[in-house]
Amino acid sequence: MAFDFSEERRRRPRVSLTSLIDVIFILIVFFMLVSSFSQYRVIDLVKGQSGSGGQSTALRLVLQADGDLLTSAGEPVDQALADAVTNRQPVSIFLEASVPIQHGVDALDRLKALGISAVSLVPEASNAVQ
């Protein structure tokens, strides 16, 4: 009884990697579209209270559409903010109608970095400060 070793070995079928690469590419694109790369920050907002009608001692700043802060009294902003920090004076920021939200957030971050926590935002500076 002799063994016949002349039979060809069975070849494994070739697996095409093209479909695997396509599936991986689609998964990568899917996860890129679903993922959020933004970092959200929490801003503490205090609800405003109605005033008593008396003259406010708050520092009045005007935030322009280009992101510049101006004082209503015409003094330099840096000096006015330094005085507000030393006197623990509240700050009112009057927003022009076309100010992007990011400029408002940047202004709040700037005041928070200086140590000013009593800040109020007032919309439409053209009607409020004259």
Cα-based radius of gyration, to the nearest Å: 32 Å
Average pLDDT value? 79
Total DSSP E strands: 4
Q: How would you describe the shape?
A: rod-shaped
Largest sheet: 4 strands, mixed
> What series of H and E elements makes up the topology?
HEEHEHEH
Distance between the terminal alpha carbons, to the nearest Å? 114 Å
Count the DSSP helices. Answer: 4
Weakly predicted, low-confidence segments: 125-130
Class per helix and strand makeup: alpha/beta
Strand adjacency order, main sheet: 2-1-3-4
Helix content: 25-40%
Subcellular location: Cell membrane
Membrane topology: Single-pass membrane protein; Single-pass type II membrane protein
Family: Belongs to the ExbD/TolR family.
Transmembrane segments: 20-40
What does this structure look like?
The structure is a single chain. By secondary structure, the protein is α/β, with parallel strands linked by helices. It has a domain at 59-128. The chain is built from four helices and four strands. Strands 2-1-3-4 form a four-stranded mixed beta sheet. Strand 1 and strand 2 (69-71) form a beta hairpin. The N and C termini lie far apart (114 Å). This is Outer membrane transport energization protein ExbD. GO terms for molecular function: transmembrane transporter activity.
